[in-house]
Amino acid sequence: MNILERFRAPCGWRGGAKQLSVDAVIPLIAVPVLSFAAAQTLLCTIITFVTTPILVYYLHHNFLRFLLRTKFFLMWNITSVVLLMLVFEITVVPLLEILPEENWVFVISVVGGIGCAYQTRVKADSGNQDAALSHVIELGDTGGELCTTCRRRAPPLAYHCRMCQTCVLRREYHCKWLDCCVGGSNLRWYMGCLLFSAIAFIYGSNLTMTSVCHPFIFIGTILLPDDCSDVYHQLDIALCFVSGVYSLLAGLAVLRCLLYHLWLIWIGTTANERRLALAGGGGSYGHDMLKNLGHIFCCKAC
Ligand SMILES: [Zn+2]
Ligand SMILES: [Zn+2]
Question: Which residues does the UniProt record annotate as the domain Palmitoyltransferase DHHC (predicted)?
Fold first, then answer.
């Protein structure tokens, strides 16, 4: 058994319906451990936020990218959302700095984001099945581009995804964070997920930071955090602060992705077509670490 097979060796419930592979279990432990490590001092927070993307990069570079498909990023996503939600509801809300209606806006956007993410995955699967059923046109038939991997003719504007092992109509890319392809069948749900998630992350971060830090009035009723020097005196408050920073970073990344898709729609193309149009570089996994980090964390060109 080589290292890759050992890495992939499943663990879980014997005879159970589902088995989790090692790569999917890592985030369940890593995200809470890193959160507590980051909450110790300001220096720990800075070190954790700088080193975590690099660690994930090396894990991806050395192991994950050799797997046909990994649930590592999906599990990281789920663990983070659950943890952020728990910290917010158990620690931030009892501080009584937040109005009930503010909490409701936050909860509705979280539920909306999760609902749209679920639909994105469901529609991706059913979309793939529909495409497979309606386009089983054997070699030699006319119409559509020939996919050499599926060995059948794919509908126009369909591209093959090696992870989903099928051709996906109007494919954008394979989203690692949801572990499914984004394409014509689920783009609207995916964009809904990005919109709700951006609101939940950024608004949740703002509510958290203005609760644990000294706030100041920015415009009208909008508060921004001012002095956060006291947060490390109590572990639970430090944990709120760390979750607020994490939430803000995640929110900005999601917002950037949402703006990217709005721009693609504006110019009338898909991420996949644009990557092909840019010719060369885009899809390859080279040695440029910064570029690869972008690919890993922004779901592009994979
Ligand atoms: Zn194909
Ligand atoms: Zn895919």
Answer: 145-274
Q: How far is the CA of 18 from the centre of ligand 2 (A)?
A: 21
3-60 per-position pLDDT tens digit = 444 445 444 444 445 667 888 899 999 999 999 999 999 999 999 999 999 999 999 8
Give the pair of three-digit tokens for residue 279: 């010719």
Ligand whose nearest atom lies closest to the CA of 128: 2
Please give the distance, rounded to the nearest whole angstrom, from the Cα atom of residue 122 to the centre of ligand 2: 13
CA–CA separation, 262 and 179 (whole Å): 21
145, β-bridge pairs = 154
In the chain, what's the furthest Cα-to-Cα distance?
71
Residue 270 CA to ligand 1 center (angstroms) comes to 17
First-last CA distance in the chain:
28
Are 276 and 117 within 8 A, CB to CB?
Answer: no
Taking the C-alpha atoms of residue 152 and residue 167, their distance in angstroms, rounded to an integer, is 10
Q: Which two tokens stand for residue 5?
A: 């097979």
Q: Are 91 and 240 in contact (CB under 8 A)?
A: yes
**Ligand 1: distance of its center to the CA of 153 in Å?**
8
Please provide the DSSP assignment of 233-289 as one string.
GSHHHHHHHHHHHHHHHHHHHHHHHHHHHHHHHHTT--HHHHHHHT-SGGG---S-H
Ligand found nearest the CA of 164: 2
167 Cα to the center of ligand 1, angstroms: 4
CB–CB of 24/71 below 8 Å?
yes
Question: Please, which residues bridge with residue 173 across strands?
Answer: 182
Q: State pLDDT tens for residues 73-99.
A: 999 999 999 999 999 999 888 888 888
Neighbours of ion ligand 2 (CB under 5 A): 161, 163-164, 174, 181
Rounded Cα–Cα distance for residues 27 and 36 (Å): 14
Domain boundaries, the chain: 81-298
